[in-house]
Amino acid sequence: MIDLESCVSRLYILHLNMKTPIEILKQYYGFSEFRGLQESIITRLVEEHKHSLVLMPTGGGKSLIYQIPALIFEGGTIVISPLIALMQDQVDALKKREIPAEFINSTVSRGNREKRLQNFVKGKIKLLYVTPERFRKKEFVAEIKKAKISLLAIDEAHCISEWGHDFRPDYSRIGEFRELIGNPLTVALTATATLDVQKDIIKKLNLAEEEIELFHQGIQRPNLRLEAKDIWGYDDKLEKMLEALETFKGNTIIYFSLIKTLDEFSGYLHKTKIGHSVYHGKLDTHRRKQVQRQFLNNDNPSDSNGQIILATNAFGMGIDKADIRLIIHAEIPSSIESYYQEIGRAGRDGKDSLCLLLYDQSDLYTQMEFIKWSNPSAEYYHRVYNILRKDTDKINSTGVDFIREEMSFKDRSDFRVETVLSMLDRYGVTKGSVENSNIELVSELHPKLENESRLENKLMNDNKKLLAMVNYFKEENCRRIFISDYFGFPGEKPCGNCDCCNQSNGKQQ
Predict the structure, then answer these.
(1) Ranges of each domain in the chain
(2) Per residue in 210-219, pLDDT tens?
């Protein structure tokens, strides 16, 4: 029997394959021309079939770089993305444009996962979004191997590198996943990668440097005004924050490192009847989605001047909102990478926006603690490993708090145990998980987790990133040039729009 639905899908996809990149851009995205380096990268992928590493500012149009080739290639495109909410938003946007796309993750029922996977294998859909963890599933790997895959796109590629600011263990295995699906044409994309991280991304993809071309667009956001102010205590921080809210009215994100501090400021804003929302990891999944949707859709404006959201760095990845006028960092971020990614969410409509860093030296302690918790010592790895070896049944029945208590450190804000468990899983020392009550040791402790010198270098690298943030605050020349130099982007000229440039101009006058 003829599968009519399959025939219609194939005819539609054949219709897409016959179009040129600019025709697809105009018809499906409504733009008349490409921006920046988009066309050069798409040409390299579509015409030369060569790998690319793309460094492009947040809001620079990275998704088009793989979505348009995906509609031209005969086979399908796999997009590896780190966040479930991010991939769902992108797929929803593609479907609105009548582009065949789907996602598979833990929020999808087993039946729907199987259906979507089969549709991709059969060529009924062009883009399949997955998290890297999906490649751990034997049934997924067995089926995905049957698909004709023309392109592998890796979004937020900096997550691959342990030397980056947002390392995710399963991302570091993408080279293995590439091999499983036949080493297809690959494009890796990120807004934030130093020279060392760029090299590590290429290495982890199992590619030689001569096989992949680097495209970097620089810090081309002249409408963003970069400011940093020295703060002394809670009252001064609150005063500067309220001044910014009054001066730069419009949709606003205020970033905090600690939920405790966020709640304190939220309480004050409530007392003064300044409408706002909050977003952090302790909210349940439904509430986080609700807050994000409201912010994106302007469903719940604080007042006629726009929405205000107080958030930890859990908020923002995948936030494609054009009219954010103000980004305030109420506490110093851990790295230039994090800071640059977060300020990149402002002013995507090209209109003037303020990015304000409030620097209180006492906030450095918080980030130093985070760095310590993200970098357990070799001795700490050994101790957790031995607890797992002796008390696996107890751990599976009582949870991670048992390990924390055995380590004689009951502070729930110390996440070294979680870091260790994640790395043991990454290196195949364990399988299963404490959350699912089925963790078990399957291997000896990996040499990389016993190498004290390597672990100390990682700790030093993270501390250097924090020091770079301090130096950014202390910068006396152009802040934009400081960021450009940090990422190795040559030739950036003074922006004339940051507080440093304005002070220099004032002195000259």
Answers:
(1) 4-216, 224-361, 374-445
(2) 999 999 877 6
